[in-house]
Each structure stands twice: as structure tokens, then as C-alpha cells.
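Quick entry, no commentary yet.
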Amino acid sequence: MDRVKLLSPGKINIGLRVWRKREDGYHDIETVFHEVKLFDEIEMEISDEIEFETNSNEIPRGFENLCLKAVRIFFESFGIHSGVRIYLKKRIPVGAGLGGGSSNSAAVLKGLNILFGVGADDDLLSELGSLIGSDVPFFIKGGTAYATGRGEIIEPIEVKVPYKIVIVYPNVKVSTSWVYGNLNLRSHDGEESLKKIVVENIDKPDKLRELVKNDLEDVVFRYHPIVADVKEKLYEIGAVFSLMSGSGSAVFGFFEKVGEKEKILNAFSSKFSCYFIE
């Protein structure tokens, strides 16, 4: 096979706890990742050179490009001396806490595995993904998973999210490193694991509101109050649970049913992006 096309999904975090800062500069966290049907598209084909194209002017073309980083790591790991052309069609907003960049690099790893017939299993691809970014291993398997460490230790969990999901991106870009750098840590000693809370209470929105938090909200809400306004508005229009995803700035709402989409769209500025996840 010399050409492959893959969907690259987004994710939300159903809760996020930050436990401590590590000696390597990262933080130990606890979260539940949930894959959502909001997709970028990636087309790849074997080429003479390594080439990258995208429809987005927000994606860097240099060393910090996670797709190209995935190519370098994959080629070095398997001794491949070749080229590949990548075309990325972006739909997941950049800097939103929805994991778009991590998902893209995971898709590139999976695509390269197919194109070059390496036969690497998910565990090996996840190991390579952890060299790119903390969220990348999750996207190798997707689904719903409990994540610990810096987010790279993944335990798939069986839990059905029984809601319609609405994601609102308020067109505010947030740097993950900036959020963690301004975070005031709080203690989680004595609390039940987030995995247990989510699994046992996913169908009890009152319990979710009481027990499931995102520690990064305080920082983002303080500097970007418009993000807090989005969360409040989602509750006003009928969400039974709402939370900022990851380091923001996207906020999701769980709805038991989504009525008129126009009503939801009208609740937010035309500068915002709203995504309806079935």
C-alpha cells in the first residue's frame, strides 16, 4: 500500500486532577479521556521527501510540528530511509484542549505503520507516542481510558457516556505549559479515584457535578473569564454537566437531549465554534 487516509478524533477530559509537579518538569495527573466524533483527516503517501501540507495556517511547519516529529521518531526507530507526504485537513480547533495535535501525531504513527508494513502493535506505537506528547498514547487505541502519570499511562475502561455532547470553543488559544506554570496545586489526598467516580456515576449528573472537577479551570477562568462564561451558559441552556476540557479553552456540556440546535448556536457569539457530538 502506498497511500492511506485516516480519521483523527478529538477527546474531552471527564475530570482532571493535578497531583504534584515532577522532577522532570511535568505534572502527575489523573484524568478520564473520552474520544469524541470530531475529526481531522490525514492523508499520507510514500514520497521521495518528507512533505507536510495542511489547510490550517495555525499549524507550525518546523520542529514543533507533531506530525513531522512522529515521522522522525518512527523512521529512526525502524531504520526507514524514505519520504512521506502528509496532508492534514484540520477541523479540531488548535489550542482548545481537545487533543488535536496529539491525535494527529498518533494517526501519523498508525499510518506509517500501515504504509511501510512494519507490523508494530499498539503497545509499541504507544511507547513511541509517549516520546511525542503525553496524550498521544491514548489516541493509539482511543475509546475511553483512565490516564495517570503525565497522562501517558493508559488503562482502557468500559463506560458508556449516555449523553449528547456539545463542545463550545470560544476562540481563545491557551498554552498547556502556561496553564501548568500558573497552577496552584490543591490536595487530593483521601479522594476516591477519578476512574471509580466516573464509572459509577456517569449516568448520575448530580454526582458528576459534585465530584468531577478540572483543576486547570481556576487558572484559565481567572485569566480568560469568557471561558467561565461558556460553562455557565451551557448550564443555562440545559446541560446536566459541563467542564472545561484539558487545559482549555474548549468547554463541553452533557445534554440528556439536544433540542433545537439553532437555540444553542444563538446562545453563543458567532465568533465561537459549536460542535454537536452524536
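second:
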Amino acid sequence: MNDVPDGWAEQVRENRAEKDRFFADHRQSPIPPAERDEFDGLAYFAPDPTYRVTATITVHDDPETLDLETTNGPPSRYERVATLSFTLDGTDCELAGYRQPDEDTATLFVPFRDKTTGQQTYGNGRYIELELGGSLTDGQEIPLDFNLAYAPFCAYSETFSCPLPPEENWLEIAVEAGERSR
């Protein structure tokens, strides 16, 4: 199933334009203030519905706690709460979904690396955040849209410390979707 809603590509473009405005103007932008006048937007792969897949969730009833290494600082503690299984470009894949301990949210944090990492995309990996709008259900099918993959703030400033994708979230395929390097 690769159902793409009407207006999907336009929604992706608007999401990107909003992020560019934030990076250019907001006081919490990771772009150093001295560089914001010259900032003309992030680089992205063109929206491609091929990279919007359906993932099946396997819920971990007793989530394992692990420390994810970071780019600059101590490890960050997360719980592996789910596994997302999907097929992309004819390849069966899995990614772990995480939450910080005691975090009561319907958002899954999915850091990943792929064959574009360090070449076409940020060298330490990218992130997807999945807003599920409710509790996780074993066997639930959700859209996993790599067109929304983004580089963390540490890609733009060393003042940020960002979790690194663990080896279990290193995909053996190229994901030419979402945010890319210039």
C-alpha cells in the first residue's frame, strides 16, 4: 500500500518552506546569526511518493532502555518501544522507534542512516518523527514518509548535541528523499 493523499507533494513543499523560514528568521534557529542573512534555504530531494511507504508496527511491551551516543556530549537515554517493518525499493527493512523514558507522547523518534549518509545527506544520519495521534497497536499500519526526513540541528551548529542513529537503524539502501546536503 502506497496511498498518497491529494495535495501530498504541495504539503511536503509547504512543510519545507516553513522550516526554511524558521531557519532564516527564528532566534532558536541552528543557523549561526552571522550566517542567517546569506541563508537561502535548505537543500532537499524532490518530493517522491516512492519514499512514502506503509510500515507495520511491532510494539515492544517491555521496552529495552539504551543509551544513544551523541554528536557532542553524554549519551541520551531512550527506550526502544516499537519496530517498524516496511518494504522500500524492493528491500524488506526495519527501523526501531524510540521514546525517552517516561515520555508520554504519541510521537516516535526514528533516527536512521542509509547509503546516502555522508555523501548526499548529513554524515551522522537523519531523523523522522512520527506523530501517531494515539497509542501504539501491534500490527498497526502507518505511513512512513522519508520525504520528511531531516538533518538534526547539530548538522548546522556544533553548539547542539544530537543522538546518533544506532547500528540497528542503518539501512542498506539509498533513501534519496527528504533533506540533503548542499
